[in-house]
Amino acid sequence: MTDITIVHSFLPHNDPDESIAFYRDLLDFEVRNDVGGGAMRWVTIGPAGQPDTSIVLHPPFADPGITEDEQKMIREMMAKGTFATVVLASKDLDATFEKAVAGGGEVIQEPTDQPYGVRDCAFRDPAGNHVRINQLP
């Protein structure tokens, strides 16, 4: 058996300050690293108490190999919320949902008992990323 853990996942951002406010202020994540500037700013965030698991909010066009057509497609997919997804979990889904709504989070789905056995809700972050939150047992 291989001992593998998730260290970093990546989500694109349009505005790092808006993304920081969403994850820090609405979901209680901590900012762990903030490097670069302008269009090339990278921010590492993560849930408090879980220092080994992070999300890197990155400029979506940082790769110099991305063509203008690909950039256009990425922008369109981000605007529709179909480019990137992260699934999180909370011990108190309803309280997490209410805090995110009170802070102006863009609701995709209110807390719902899914037919496949999960209770969850969903938001879009400021960049359009799909953020789904599951209820922990």
UniProtKB/TrEMBL annotation:
UniProt xrefs under SUPFAM superfamilies: Glyoxalase/Bleomycin resistance protein/Dihydroxybiphenyl dioxygenase
Transmembrane regions listed in the UniProt entry: none
PROSITE patterns per the UniProt record, alphabetical: VOC (PS51819)
Family annotation (InterPro entries): Glyas_Bleomycin-R_OHBP_Dase, Glyas_Fos-R_dOase_dom, VOC_core
UniProt domain VOC: residue ranges: 5-136
Protein's UniProt keywords contain Lyase: yes
Annotated signal sequence range: none
Keywords: Lyase
Pfam families referenced in this protein's UniProt entry, alphabetically: Glyoxalase (PF00903)
Keyword Oxidoreductase: no
Name the record gives this protein: Putative enzyme related to lactoylglutathione lyase
Upper lineage: Bacteria, Bacillati, Actinomycetota, Actinomycetes, Propionibacteriales
